[in-house]
Design brief:
alpha+beta, Glutaredoxin, four-stranded mixed beta sheet, 4 strands, globular, transport
């Protein structure tokens, strides 16, 4: 194992300890497109409300295999929330405007 690999492992372990001490939950948000900052802030608030931590830190992932909505993974067990926020009526209205 190279020293660089050890630094990565040490940094990851440090992040885990820092999150635990600051009562921060790390959640991964997967979506088809990049989400706007205001959407990420709303997601963080809702994850905080559902899971109860003092703070929530989001990591974003682009997942082209999703059809719509987002998937949020949180906690050590990898618990998962699937939220589909697509409203068909809004989509139909958008297409009518083109």
């Amino acid at each position: 194992m190279k020293r660089v690999d050890l630094i990565k492992e040490i940094a990851a372990e440090f992040e885990l300890i820092a999150n635990r001490l600051s009562e921060t939950e790390v959640a991964t948000v997967a979506s088809v497109v990049e989400l706007e900052p205001q959407h990420l802030a709303e997601i963080a608030k809702r994850v905080q409300k559902l899971t109860g931590p003092k703070n929530v830190k989001l990591k974003t992932v682009i997942d082209k295999s999703l059809l719509a909505g987002i998937i949020i993974r949180y906690g050590n067990s990898g618990s998962k929330l699937s939220l589909i926020t697509l409203r068909l009526l809004n989509v139909v209205c958008e297409f009518k405007n083109y």
